[in-house]
TrEMBL record:
It comes from Rehmannia glutinosa. Belongs to the 11S seed storage protein (globulins) family. The lineage of its organism: Eukaryota, Viridiplantae, Streptophyta, Embryophyta, Tracheophyta. Pfam families: Cupin_1 (PF00190). InterPro entries: 11S_seedstore_pln, Cupin_1, RmlC-like_jellyroll, RmlC_Cupin_sf, Seed_Storage-Functional. This is Cupin type-1 domain-containing protein. The keyword Disulfide bond applies. Residues 3-157, 195-339 form the Cupin type-1 domain. It comes from the Eukaryota.
Length: 356
């Protein structure tokens, strides 16, 4: 069966005055189910409040736009109230309860990418809400709720039924919400736009890698991530994940072209990608991208906390490690052709600036 790797946009699942929740459907993007990957976006308007919930999947959250507040409660821990802004990546292990709030005029948009191998539905996140019309406690009898919380049944009924919205609400401008604490941010999140660069190639591109060294919590999530900013008309070297990981890529800004090649040298994807697109590269398949003149940024998760890549062009590529005799035999070319090939790309690695 042929794999459909066509990039897709998210579709609205629910929402209201406070904002909306979007997700990618595994029926439209089959590689989500194939790779046990979930992908979704939360968009909050001013005073939008995403009600407390937990998920059946470990995730990495990435702030695409705006600024706001995230409340995070790790199992049997105290609440952390984080200031969040564009570029922040947050690791969300199993069992974490989160809420999200936007008090600014600019829409707050958060991307979620995660592992659904233990989820109820492969390729989809299932959220369990603590309150609201579909909250967990709407399913318990009043007797059970009142005994669990040690309140009168009338109080239990009020607590369970007063919030009639589902998932996202708009709170009053006068509502007082917890103030974020900078000290809560450390160890919980990393701003990929401000972090030290792992790769910085003039006129080529920049990379920040999220791993257990700069954000140890990703070890509990079991995922690695990176933010790549490719300069205008630059190329990202053909390469693959050599530790059997999947690459899940969301285009944050700009546009460009992508090609993916699989087994037997078959090109399985050739298309234009733009902001908002999500696509998945299967294990060991080789991918390369070329940005349009305005450049292209993307955020990716890799299904291992410390990913390793092999590149097939550039100074650090496998070609530079192989001996000339092996290259001549493998390509079936004379020595002068091999020498011309080997003399190129001696300085550049990973990203290649546009031809002059």
């Amino acid at each position: 069966m042929e794999l459909d790797l066509t990039p897709k946009l998210a579709k609205k699942i629910y929402g209201g005055d406070g904002g909306a929740y979007y997700a990618w459907c595994p029926n439209e993007l089959p590689m989500l189910r194939e790779g046990n990957i979930g992908a979704a976006k939360l968009a909050l308007e001013k005073n939008g409040f995403a009600l407390p919930r937990y998920s059946d999947s470990a995730k990495v959250a990435y702030v695409l736009q705006g600024s706001g507040v995230a409340g995070i409660v790790l199992p049997e821990k105290e609440e952390k109230v984080l200031p969040i802004k564009k570029g922040d990546a947050i690791a969300l292990p199993f069992g974490v309860v989160t809420w999200w709030y936007n008090k600014e005029d600019t829409e707050l948009v958060v991307l979620f990418l995660g592992d659904t191998s233990k989820a109820h539905k492969s390729g989809s996140f299932t959220d369990f809400f603590l309150t609201g019309s579909n909250g967990i406690f709407t399913g318990f009898s009043t007797e059970f709720v009142s005994r669990a919380w040690d309140v009168e049944e009338s109080i239990a009924k009020t607590l369970v039924s007063s919030q009639s919205a589902k998932g996202i609400v708009k709170v009053a401008p006068t509502a007082k919400m917890p103030e974020p604490k900078k000290e809560h941010y450390n160890g919980m999140a990393l701003n990929c736009e401000e972090a030290p660069l792992d790769v910085d190639i003039k006129d080529g591109g920049k990379v920040v890698v999220l791993n257990t060294k700069n954000l140890p919590l990703v070890g509990e999530v079991g995922l690695g991530a990176d933010l790549v900013r490719l300069n205008g008309s630059a190329m990202c070297s053909p390469g693959f994940s050599c530790d059997s990981a999947l690459q899940v890529t969301y285009i944050v800004r700009g546009s460009g072209r992508v090609q993916v090649v699989g087994a037997d040298g078959k090109r399985v994807l050739e298309t234009t990608i733009k902001a908002g697109n999500l696509f998945i590269v299967p294990r060991f398949f080789v991918v390369s991208k070329i940005a349009d003149p305005d450049g292209m940024d993307w955020f990716s998760i890799i299904t291992t906390p410390n990913p390793i890549f092999t590149h097939l062009a550039g100074r650090t590529s496998v070609w530079k490690a192989l001996s000339p005799e092996v290259l001549q035999a493998a390509f079936n070319v004379p020595a002068d052709v091999e020498q011309k090939f080997s003399s190129k790309r001696k300085a550049e690695e990973i990203f290649f600036p546009p031809p002059k």
